[in-house]
Amino acid sequence: MNITKKIRGGSLLARALHEKGIDRVFTLAGGFCNPALEGFMECQMPVVNCPHEQVAGHLADGHARISRKPTVCLVGPEGFANAIPAVMEAWGERSPVIFVTGSSTLKRTGAGGFKEIDDVAIAAPLTKYSESITDGERIPEFVDRAYKIAVSGYPGPVHLSLPVDIMFSSFDVEVGRQERPFEWVAKRPPRAWPDPAALESLLKRIAGANRPVLIGGHGVWWSGAEAKLEQVGRTLNIPVFNIPYHQKLLGEEREAYMGLADIHQYPPSKFAIEESDIAIMLGGRLDNQMNFGNPPLFPASTELVCVNGSHEELEFNRAADHVLLSNPGAFLDALLALPADDAWKLDRQWLDLNRRKRRDWVAATLAGLKPETDEAAATGGKMHPLQLALDVQDALGENDWLVFDGGNTHFWSEIAVNIAGWYGKKLGGILHPGSFSMLGVGVSFAVAAKNTHPGANVVLLSGDGAFLSGGLSVEVAFQEHTPIVVVIDNNGGLDCISQQQERLFESGKHFATDFRDIPFHTMFEGLGGHGELVETREQLGPALKRALASGKTACVNVKAKGVISPIVLATTSKRDKASIE
Asked: Exposed/middle/buried for 189, CB within 10 Å: 0-12, 13-18, 19+?
């Protein structure tokens, strides 16, 4: 007599995810999810238990961004409500996180079951796919579908809801194997290939340009085409820019890389785009960051081209003069083939002009910073946040990772990265909040960077407000023995918002944005880490060295000066602007 082995639905889910090659799960363990946790334990999959579901989501997101592979965030029903900010952050950056909810019982749906929420409907606007598994025998099928959707076209988060009665019910271990596909392993996702006629027509236009610019977005990163982007810029003499808030594509030390396509944080981009005769936006959206493709950012005289790897993204680029459905890597290959066909004539004049503009901006910015730094040194005053960001980078090697988080802290850090890159500074990688500019992701992203690069130093430069938003996640660094260094740009409040209020409010004052003097460094010491207080610039370098050498999760709490960043200054006018948009 043949006896078929039975396993719980949660274990069936775990096995299906394991077979897809998932190598990390993040969770806050709860009773609804115990069968899945048992399955992950049996599959010997690493599971990180987090102090909060939002932390679990941000860790999964950070891991996926770095590895460019799907990860799993497993939560209970009420925990899924806590994880929504992480779903939104992953959605903004197109991060292929598989969010799984152990949800309320299927048997009593709609009757007020224990912890019953409509998690599928809640997740739908922020994911590529959100579905409830109502038949346990189809668990592998739903996992297969969710995984493929997460990685196809431009990737993005997906959501599966597994009711608790199905989670605990038993099923044949080989359920579903009699139907195609018989193997549930991950396969390389299909990629969009450009229509030959459309590609040829577009290449002719680009080849005739005298002042082209390339603006890279998240699609370049997720298609793994950043090396080709750098090669195109360097060999074809095209200045390359990065869409704000999206994953850094090239090291700022690269010859053709100029910086952000942001006229406030990198003013020379205004010159480049205004003077360009063709602007090629690759793997990005004409959204608020790009003024929806309209003047004055893109003048009417500039031909605007958008190349995207999925039709959903093309729909956001209706303002473009020309659109092309193509995997970014395939399009870059076509550009790189132009010199071989003697179809590319552009010399270095345009690229060198943009490099001079960048050099002059770097010099002018540092010249403006010097009096502030000199005065602080003479009086024992607080550091300028730009000087802080530059000095933090000085402590890092070319394999180390830098994470930044916050409002003004983020903006000043972007400027510092560009300046340091001009002088040849190399970093192993950079992470920061995505298009929603969400505070509190920094610690989770830093832990993710340390998880994936255990031999590298990982330093987070965080505003005090950002740390208060997500600092609880630092417990994961202690628990998982993944030491990171947190440098807090401590200016005593939500400075970015304060500065907006002072220009918006009739009184010229700010309101409800101050913090008390919080001893962040002693908090780390209490948790078993290393902590130091820094009040002057001369104390910073030695403190950073000691923190990195400690081998512990460490905090360098820097009393920094509150200085309005260029983007806030340029886009906030008294009583007319309520935000920095």
From this structure: middle
